[in-house]
Amino acid sequence: MLSPHLRLRHLRCFLEIARLGSLSAAAEALHVSQPAASKTIRELEEILGTALFDRSGRRLVLTAAGRIYQNHAGAAIADLERAQHLVLSPPRERPKISAGVLPTAGTGLAPRAALAFRETHPDVLLDVMTGPNWLLHSLLREGQLDIVIGRIPPPGASEGLHFQRLYWERVVPVVHARHPLLGKDWEYRALADYPLMLPPPGALISVAVRTWLHSVGLTDPAPAYENVSLAFGREVVLHSETVWFISEGVVRPEIEAGTLAVLPIRNELLGGPVGITLRDGNAPSAETAALIAALEEAATGFGG
User: Fold this and answer.
1) Alpha-carbon distance 183 to 204, whole Å?
2) CB of 274 within 8 A of CB of 163?
3) Inter-axis angle of helices 23-30 and 8-20, to 10 degrees?
4) What is the pTM (predicted TM-score) of this model?
5) Chain segment 170-202, per-residue pLDDT in tens
6) Is 96-298 CATH 3.30.450.20?
7) Under 8 Å between Cβ of 169 and 302
């Protein structure tokens, strides 16, 4: 147990003497008289029950016990000074935006807007979370996210939310750059000859894709894969003849790089709006408003 007689003056005086090796020099540094400094050290040694300095020479030298006490006393003083500084001058809390990013915005819109936002707001932390549509919009409604970037909330799940459209984005069938259907006339029924990768039933674009396939004669498509993940879909398509129906924004970098290609289809209505979703009745913070402006600027040239 810490002695009730121990005071900060004991620690400061001891540390100064240990640093300077001289009682008079320590007294001068502490702005006290030499007798007062000597009395303080005697009190500390009585509290501890041991000598802290060897006084046999011209300089005061720490004993073994003194060296141990110096290490811990110095750390204690440093911690107390740090605690005082934090209380008197608490660090400013860093502004943060929690943003949910859906796959269709994760490879083009959101990164471009984030980089532009960083240029003007370098002190703001942009905390990005990815996940399925239903999850991100649920977290937004609960207040765990400030904004969701991507597709509109699914029907029946938009209560308490407000969607702002930025552009219309196509859903496209993509294949690798040497796919047999590229560079020639082909009929939609030829899709049945190749493995299909379709959005899973829970994905917002799933119904539109299956409705379109039904309208062109594939009444009961049996997909080889159900997926909207870029990492998985890209690898499968690059190494097989698979045709992947996916939002164009998910694979835009691969299309621009020429590693994936779009099979032309005559239905521009196969798609949907991409934008931002916010909570109703909650005015966005200044930082979130600035991110929205960056998203609006980045959306120029995407879709229609």
Assistant:
1) 31
2) no
3) 130
4) 0.66
5) 899 999 999 999 988 888 989 999 999 999 988
6) no
7) yes
